[in-house]
Amino acid sequence: xxLGALIMRFRTRGEGFCxxxxxxxxxxxxxKNQLSKKxxxxxxxxxxGNGTAEIFKDEEAVFTFSMHGAANxxxxxxxxxxxxxxxxxxxxxFYIKTLKEYLPRLIDRVMPDFIIYQCGVDVLxxxxxxxxxxxxxxxxxxxxxxxxxxxxxGLPIMCCMGGGYSEKIGHIIEAHANTYRLAQDIFF
Length: 188
Description:
Blueprint: H1 3-7, H2 22-32, E1 39-43, H3 50-55, E2 62-69, E3 82-86, H4 92-110, E4 114-118, H5 136-152, E5 157-160, H6 169-187
Parallel strand pairs: 1-2, 1-4, 2-3, 4-5
Helix pairs in contact: 4-5, 5-6
Keywords: Hydrolase
Protein name: Histone deacetylase domain-containing protein
InterPro entries: HDAC_classIV, HDACs, His_deacetylse_dom, His_deacetylse_dom_sf, Ureohydrolase_dom_sf
């Protein structure tokens, strides 16, 4: 696969607010340069990681996991290696329980040596486009689970700051800043 094929959100086009697929470019670079043998994409943005799923549908070295709003954009979902569609308005407790159910088993099953984490904050209840119901604390708990899992398994992780469309920009900033604060606390 050429780098040019990865520059667009899909192999042939951009979509939504995404013209470039930073996850695909990064995973491709890691694999091509033999810096990783198995990349686990943990996509917890409210929207399915459809472009990433399509790009890596035939690539054994990249496992795509997307936990997203079932009824949210895009209406046509691609097939990730593992999709976990969530109902509208799902709150902290159900979301965190579901993530804890899947992530540890994925680490054991996939045996990645690198994680790329799409940590969009459009999962917040205040998000205009998201349709899920996480609080800022729930979003922080989500990040802690992913970051601590990577740390406990000695796995390097790259975080991609995805969507966030709350009317109060402070909610977006606080949720994104929590990701950095947690990474600082956990890894350093």
